[in-house]
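Feature request disguised as a bug: please show the residue count (260) next to RNA helicase in the output. Example input:
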Amino acid sequence: MRRNDRNGGRVEKRFDRMERNGENLRSIRWDQVTLEAFQKNFFQPASSVLNRSRAEVNQYLDKNEITVYGKNVPAPILHFHESGFPQYMLDEFQRQAFKEPTFIQAVGWSIAMSGRDMVGIAKTGSGKTLAYILPALVHISNQPRIARGDGPIALVLAPTRELAQQIKQVCDDFGRRMGIYNTCVFGGASKYPQESDLRRGVEIVIATPGRLIDFLERETTNLRRCTYLVLDEADRMLDMGFEPQIRKIISQIRPDRQVL
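Example output, currently without the count:
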């Protein structure tokens, strides 16, 4: 019984620390901030997507057991050449021997490229990272370039360093030819190289919540330029007790951001 009490105490202390993490963040009154307008609808697919009939869309969704909720949801992208992505992305698909979009990509690209918020649920290995990273790259390429002292344009929050590093690899594969740079910040590693990247300026930050809050509190970076937010494995982050930290991070981001 004592052992259970001790373990329970440790858990309570851990969650208490997570609650306190971010106490020193400056509160932003977004209703008193003049926000610069930004564009987030870049959906310019092939005419075959725009002309896809509702019957054809429903057949694809039913056949693949896909459920979509929402109003005026754009038709899915069934083939890479229909996506409207830059040619180098199409070349990268071919280099990696991708044959056609996965289900989450087919449906997700249309929604994300339209600038809409989305909650996507898909199995591990379904290609969900590309479902949000490629629209992120297009989004970033259509915003003003970042300057020294600017924070990222896109932020991806992940529950673990392992997942964060996997996401970084995808960003590297598809972002380098666009001159879009990223960094990965997570606990359990030296802060110095992460801090150096943040101060130099990157368009994408992939982060675990605790380490990102550390840097925000120290004003190593900021989220004033962030207009594209991704919560990868959001349910897992909530199960791990990250909700207070996530809320504090989101409070630092303009309210009209796009969220996936």
